[in-house]
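U., I forgot to send this yesterday:
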Amino acid sequence: MNTLTKFQNFDEVPVKQIAPGFFCKLVHTENNTINFLEVKAGSQLPNHSHPHEQSSFILDGQFEMTVNGESKVLVANDFVVIPGGVEHGGKAITDCKLIDVFSPVREDYR
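Result:
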């Protein structure tokens, strides 16, 4: 077994609110941050950028994502890959479940 292997129970990961209506369970690996989100309908994250590459996967609901000025409503099974440094933001049209994967690790989310 790899010395970095850690078996954990997802129920033990605390919920953190990173913005109004954005409730997260954050898992940090050596190279990534994996963010399991539940977002309340109408909640919005203003346009912003960060140096991390971000891949956002929609598991449930409708989430309008704006990347570099282009907007699209994403639904279950849609995803978007956002390069580091690119401006983006989003709004939950309905209650949503998403997974965001950041590389490298989001130290600000620890």
